[in-house]
Fold these 2 entries.
Entry 1:
Amino acid sequence: MTTIVEVHDVTKRFGSVTAVDGVSFRIEEGKIYGLLGRNGAGKTTLMSLLTGQEFATHGDIRVFGETPVENARVLERVCFIKESQKYPDDFKVKHVLRMAPRFFPRWDQGFADRVGGDFRVPLDRKMKKLSRGQFSAVGVIVGLASRAPLTFFDEPYLGLDAVARQLFYDRLLADYAEHPRTVVLSTHLIDEVSDLLEHVLVIDDGQLLVDSPADELQGSATTVVGGREAVESFVGARTVLHRDGIGGLVSLTVAGLSAEERTAARAAGLELGPVSLQQLIVRLTTGRPTDFAEEAHQ
């Protein structure tokens, strides 16, 4: 698989605030990535660095083998859709869609028209007069129809209702299958997108916490339920991501159980349950066990 993004020891500071702190990772061609984390974790800043909108304070970034800053060869292959996108005051929806081909060489106008019809976007309405959902829909249309080899979606669909969000996911998957490219989704709606993701990057407090294939990550934690003494004895010194209990019963979420350990737990009368990707990310970013990433791959 071809690597199209390389990030090495990148830090970004705004005054005394460190938004991205010593981050290193790679993004490969032809995958859907999830860039996940809490609000203020550094996700938008990281995407701004990758799309050449910010300069790194320290470290090196290569996109398609080159620095993205003020680099037309790179930027014409990248699309960055964000919720806070700004447009000229007099711009209507039709103006946005008419200008898009100038920035995206692979733009598909027919596809944009079809998706615009699906979302029922009013072409003659000014962007500043759109509802939040309509504004989000325009971003979705541009991001999908750009067919950019590297496309970032930074929470652009927050204004969409559940039906419209599902429409976005369906259109994304169908067009991705027909026109493969690399897509990075930054979202807090983790359960909704979990089935789309092939690889997960988790950032918290500016630091990269997890860099893992989605299927490996989702299978890397288990909830162990049973009597307090039996559960505590079984878990031992393992990293505990989350703890619940009432009376004599306790539920612990732990990382890195092998098949043999699962068999032993059941033989001891303990119940084992799966942990959704959203539950895992929430527990991981609130607990911050430093050795989770290593245990998840044991």
Entry 2:
Amino acid sequence: MLSPQSLSENDRRLVAAWAADCAERVLPLFEAEVPEDDRPRDGIARARAFSRGELSAAGEIRRRFVAGRAAQSTASPAGKAAAWSAAQAAGVAHMGAHALGAAAYAAKAAELAAPGGGEAEVRWQVQHMSRSVRAALRTLPLLGENSSGPLGSGLLASGALGQTIHALQAALRNAELN
């Protein structure tokens, strides 16, 4: 049985483009430090290609960790968070909940680069969700409610990442009510 954090392939394709948008906004924080390492940029490009139906989920599942390994080549916390955002975007082909991980790491990178940047990033992320992306993300379990994926009790559930995902899920619930 699939995890409720997986989403359907169609919904994963929808949220992959939004996750790539989130990651791409902070990519310069990584590239300024390690311009020759194209793994995060490639992860974002692959997320976009997956969203357009050009790549299969099976093929991308095998490659989902490549962009994240680039975090080892940068020293700054903001650069590391930007690489992890790209890795989470690439991971959407495997599991839709990674889209919220991409957004959370992007907000973390923005905050590390400039105090207050994380909050502004979350506002941008919410404003740039299409109606279909909102609908898909609303089907995910709330952070910490389901242990069968990235929204379980792991890294995304605590600290700044957890706070950001809580804020995004609250915004999704509020948009549903309005």
